[in-house]
Amino acid sequence: MSEDEFRAAMSRLASGVVLVTAHEPALDPEGPRGDDVGMTATAFMSVSLDPPLVLISLREGSRMDDLLAEQPLWAVSILSESQRHIAGRFAMKGRVSDRLLFEDIPYVRGEASGALLVGGALATLECRTEQRVSAGDHTLVIGRVLTATVPSADGGPLTYFRGRYRQLG
Fold this sequence. Notes:
By secondary structure, the chain is α+β, with helices and mostly antiparallel strands. About 15% of the residues lie in helices and about 45% in strands.
């Protein structure tokens, strides 16, 4: 089986779209504030209700993978169908600074994680890494959910199917 055959088969699985965020602390406590980092993900799932655990799959060696290897606190915003532009923005390879990407997006900073939570998201979760598992060219990060909110009941979820963002219905 080739990579293309595997990719084509897996593209038939519809997935929800989330924005994973974390705060990278400043290197020098006396210097400028640290950076906020974000990435779009479709490989996200609930793992356990007791304790509340979720799993995110990160490309090995990506900026988020490297950050979460050092920083155990992170957040997930479950994107609504009206937030396709956010998903696309944070999925770009070789993009500009994440600081610029967050510039015109409404958000609040999570109290438990310090990570950004996207305004208008269907739900937001703040997490602390419990376990990291190497899996091929990805790292599976299992996080304990510290907070869960449902700030918006409007609209449906943003989904990803056959290589494109889509809406239900």
